[in-house]
Amino acid sequence: MRVLLLGGTTEARQMAHALKSAGIETVFSYAGRTNAPVAQPVPVRVGGFGGVDGLVRYLRAEGISHIIDATHPFAAQMSWNAHHASAACGLPLVRLERPAWRAQEGDDWVHVPTLDAAREALPQARSRVFLAIGRMHLASFAGAPQHRYLLRLVDPPKEGLPLPDTTVIVARGPFDVAGDTALLRDHRITHVVAKNAGGSGALAKIEAARALGMRVILVDRPTLPDTTVCPDTETVLRHLNHSAERGV
Length: 248
Ligand code: 3Y8
Ligand code: NAP
What we know:
Layout: E1 2-6, H1 10-21, E2 25-30, E3 44-46, H2 51-61, E4 66-69, H3 76-89, E5 93-96, E6 109-112, H4 115-121, E7 128-131, E8 148-153, E9 166-170, H5 177-186, E10 191-195, H6 204-212, E11 215-219, E12 228-230, H7 233-245
Parallel strand pairs: 1-2, 1-4, 2-3, 4-5, 5-12, 6-11, 7-8, 7-10, 8-9, 10-11
Helix pairs in contact: 1-7, 2-3, 5-6
The chain binds ligand 3Y8 and NADP nicotinamide-adenine-dinucleotide phosphate (NAP).
Residues 6-9, 29-31, 33, 48-51, 54-55, 71-72, 74-78, 81, 134, 195 line the site of NADP nicotinamide-adenine-dinucleotide phosphate.
C-alpha cells in the first residue's frame, strides 16, 4: 500500500503520524501556500500537481494505491480534483473531514453562503472587524473600506493589502482561547468573520467571541464531492485496511 495524503490541516498532521505508526508508506502533500510549512513524520512533496491530468500522472508515476484527502473543507478545488483523478485511475479515495461548528445557546452567529455575503452582512457604519480568513480572499472586502480590519496571516504580506485600514498579525495556528480572547478585547473588535472550518485549530476565535458575546459572521462550506468521508484517523485506517483486504 502507498498512500498520497493531501494535507494542510491539523487532522492531516495527525493522520501522517497514524500512518507512520501503522507502517504504511505515505507521501504528504502541501500546496506550497506558506513559506515554511510544519515538518511531517513522512516524506513531503510541495506544490500543485497541474490539475486533474497532472494528478493522474503523479498517481501512476508514483505507484500510489490509496488517496486520503485531509485538506481543509474550503480547499474545494483540490478535493474535486482528487475525486476525478481517483475515478480516472480506479484508486480508492477517502476524505478525512472534521464536522462543521454548530451554534450553541446564546451564540450571536450570522450564517452566510460566501465571503461576499459576509461583507454584505457587516454594518454600513464603521466597525472593528477581525477578518480571520487568511490572505487569499481579502479582496472580497475591498468593497467595505470603511471598517478597521484586524488580519491574521501565516506569513508577512508580500504585496500591498486590498484594504486601507488594517492591523496585521503574523501567526500560524493552532490558536488558544485565552490568546484569542485577549486579541478581540485588546483590539476592541465588534465583529468576527470566519469560515466554518470546523476542527480545533481555528476554534479559539469562535469560543472567544462566544465568551465576549460578540457577533460572528460565519461562511458556509463549499460543496465537496460525494466521497467516502471519515471523521477521524482511526476510521480512515480501518477503511484503508478494509480496502486492502479486498485487494483494491
Ligand atoms: C499551507 C501549513 C497543523 C495545521 C494547522 C486547521 C488549523 C492552524 C487555522 C485564524 C484562521 C485560515 C488559514 C488557518 C488555520 C490550521 C492549520 C489552519 C486559518 C497552514 C499551512 C498552510 C496553510 C494555508 C493557509 C491559507 C489560509 C488558511 C490561514 C503550514 C498554517 C485563515 C483558514 O498566506 C496564505 O496563502 C495562507 C493560505 C490557505 C486561507 C487563506 O485564504 O488565506 N490556511 N495554513 C498548506 C499548503 O501549502 O498545502 O504552513 O504549516 C495550516 C493550518 N492552518 O499542522 O497544525 O487545521 O485548520 N489557515 C480558515 O480556517 O479560515 C486561520 O486566523 O483564526
Ligand atoms: P484549493 O483552492 O482547493 O486548490 C487550488 C489548487 O492548489 C489545487 O487545484 C492544487 O493545484 C493546489 N493544491 C491545493 N491543496 C494541495 C495539496 N495539499 N497538495 C498539492 N497541491 C494542492 O486549495 P486552497 O484552499 O488554496 O488550500 C491550499 C492548501 O492550504 C491545502 O493544503 C489546504 O488544506 C490548506 N488550507 C486551506 C485553507 C483554506 O481556507 N482554503 C485553510 C487551511 C489550510 P493543482 O491543480 O496544480 O494540482
